[in-house]
Here is the input.
Amino acid sequence: MAKARTAYVCNECGADTAKWQGQCPACGAWDTMSEIVLEPAASARTAAPARRGGWAGAAEAPQVTPLAGVRQVDDLRVSTAIGEFDRVLGGGLVEGAVVLVGGDPGIGKSTLLLQAVAGMSSVLPGLYVTGEESLAQVAGRGQRLGLPLDGVNALAETCVERILGHAARLRPRLIVADSVQTLWTETLTAAPGSVSQVRESAARLVRYAKETGTAVFLVGHVTKEGGIAGPRVLEHMVDAVLYFEGDVGSRFRVLRAFKNRFGAVNELGVFAMGDKGLKEVPNPSAIFLSGASRQPGSCVMVTREGTRPLLVEVQALVDSSPLSNPRRVAVGLEQNRLAMLLAVLHRHGGIAVGDQDVFVNVVGGIRVQETAADLPVLLAVLSSLRDRPLAEKTVAFGEVGLSGEIRPVPNGEERLKEAATHGFRRAVVPKANAPRAGSYKGLEVVAVERLADAIDAAG
Ligand code: TYD
Ligand code: MG
Here is the structure.
């Protein structure tokens, strides 16, 4: 029998080394290396590519082939019966795809996936593996939501070997593992939930998916740092990474594609959580407005996440600070971007907020990653600083450069159209995005080229 080989894996970052070391050479953490048993060399040879997220199982040695001559296989897509979920997946679930769904506890991951498994059960018989809830809880939720549960099998199990044993017998076409943090494999001695266990268990499921063409959903809780189970250990193994986000206090939830081998990234799906589970919101444009606009410090922006425009309100509060080092807090936006905007405002606009606390928040718990949020954030900050609301029914979008120029953003016309459709009357936009006529379908367009123009436009 081949001797079992071992390696050492860091519990913090998942890096591996051949020898034990006191300090992880990758992340520098101390005393985090734990031993893992690798498979014997013979099986490791075919298994190795799968560990890196590739395809395994080819018995003969691969041949060099001209790419143009490779036969193309159309991805077979199955609708989840939830339109917004399909949109985020890139038009439905691709058979054999491994999709990681991450999000805070209580955001609705289990609900969404149970609804999706039930929705697909007539086409893809599913196996719902739960490591967190009892079967009675899962079944109870399914019945309360009135889901068609006929083609769905459930299993309360956390050991990957046993899960795959059941899968080999039942041959489901779709497996949901809720959640990866509860999974463990017999080949490792580390505790369930540790990075090495999560990584190895997920790798086993990925390998199974690629070998059998079974689609797999992995549910992952988000850690305090915002990653799934340690920095980036799962993201490179899977075909798609979706994050479920939103205010737990609000009804609305946003599902965002962060990585997708089969579709566009940053695509958004919007849902509302109600007493009958998650309902899609197919036309979400105006739900991220607080309704209390025309207050000082509020500005509506037209962001374009994924492939459709969205009207989102950003709020700012500028207040004199008792601290020698005033606070800059950005919720739903990048903190560094806020610091940069305030520096531009000071250097090129002569407006100092060095003795003020600045808080910026995007309404509705949504995260905006686009630079098109720069100009609206700036207008909101100016409005709060002066304690004067922006002109009624104003929207804005545009990027702010370090030399104080206002730069154009993609899809300007589509954004203007969205604002006009929702009854806005004034749009503050970069000059290069503005139509020549100075208005667009009843929308007065204020073109700004430099920071000074933007400061004037804030009124
Ligand atoms: P859940 O899917 O269990 O979240 P996760 O798996 O991400 O931890 O959702 C839990 C929350 O959703 C819980 O706070 C209750 C709420 N909820 C509803 O409001 N309506 C419903 O129909 C369901 C099933 C859940
Ligand atoms: Mg859950």
